[in-house]
Amino acid sequence: MMPSNKSVSDAPIFQFTNCRILRSHQLQREDLWVREGKILNPEKLFFDEKGSADIQLDCKDSIIAPGFIDVQINGGFGVDFSLAVDDVQSGISLVSQKILSHGVTSFCPTLVTSPPSVYHKVLPQISIRNGGPHGAGILGAHLEGPFISKEKKGAHPEHYLSTFESGAFQDLLATYRHLDCVRIVTLAPEMKRSSEVIQELTRQGICVSLGHSVANLSQAEEAVRHGATFITHLFNAMLPFHHRDPGIVGLLTSDQIPARRRVFYGMISDGIHTNPAALRIAHRAHPKGLVLVTDAIAGMGLAPGKHTLGQQVIEVDGLNTYIAGCTVETALEAASLHPAQLLGIEHRKGTLNYDNDADFLLLDNSLRVRATYIAGERVWSQDTFTI
Which of 27, 224, 278, 280 is deepest in the core (most CB within 10 A)? Predict the structure, then answer.
């Protein structure tokens, strides 16, 4: 006689019905089963445990997609992660709570180019943590700069930019001091001694991203051979594509990428930073590498006006978002599966595969978020939407 489901676990089993689930790159009409914060395999439940659902929930024809993972977000709702304040945690907590309504279930708080004193004060206050009703999970910090190109600094303050001098990795350590919470470092690969730095960061399990750079293609390929796996906001703050030397953009179709290595690229698909046609070109060239990022700043969620980005003041005028013409599945995977693969956590997050964390969203047909779940618990929902 097979055990009943209660002998395996006393936790309730939730069955989400009347929905289309993103699984195996397709939206499929099937139910989603959840127990103890994990996605459950219903076949094992039926045949091994002889179990059934304790609670059935009608999703009212929602799309169920994995929770979004934002690997580049500088702040929002008046909070700037690059400001050296005493209560960094409360600012991060506010943003992590507010982004639940946007479908983000985990993220990398991003610091733009800052003086060493800012990193020394802010980084010890960032801790990696799981998400929940308190807010989206924190996967670790993304440090964008200061080891970037003056020519392509974008909104980064030039007088805080830095290079790898005699110490290479020691220069980086002196600047940041704390690497425990760091998940991604964006740097310019054409810098002297950057290869040593890329190798050491990769050895320590930190993802290296190429950006704010005037690197040519061979310099970018060398960086990938040494361990770099990501491109920060493709097309922005790098040399434009040229047919004789396509620069960093050429990594999307390079034949010099090591076997079994995938290069991912972040894109701000708001129709302003990148023309939708450019996004379509990148996606058609290398669909499995597309990672959607917001690159949001402190002004996100606030009225138009002046807001900060690290040491700079930015003018915000209106709010624009655009969809680039990808399929629904492609867009959802670019915001969930691909960032999870980039960070090497796809066995836990970024898909609705069995035994993965039950971080997922209920969306309407226009991809507006109806409800957000983390570890199987509803952490946000539209006022008008109940299941």
Answer: 224
- Is 295 marked active-site? yes
Is residue 158 helix, strand or coil? helix
Question: What is the pLDDT, as a whole number, of residue 274?
Answer: 85
The active-site residue, picked from 295, 355, 357, 359, is 295
Residues 72, 232 contacting (CB under 8 angstroms):
yes
| Whether the Cβ atoms of residue 177 and residue 123 lie closer than 8 Å to each other | yes
**Confidence at residue 318, expressed as pLDDT on a 0 to 100 scale:** 41
Residue-level length of the chain = 387
Helix (H, G, I), strand (E, B) or coil at 43: helix
In 3D space, the residue among 373, 335, 375, 294 whose CA is nearest the CA of residue 95 turns out to be: 294
Separation between Cα atoms, residue 18 and residue 35, nearest integer Å = 18
Cβ neighbours of 308 (radius 10 Å):
18
In which residue ranges of the chain is pLDDT below 50? Answer: 1-5, 314-323
* 17-53 burial code (b ≥16 CB/10 A, e <16): eebbbbbeeebeeebbbbbebbbbebeebeeebebeb
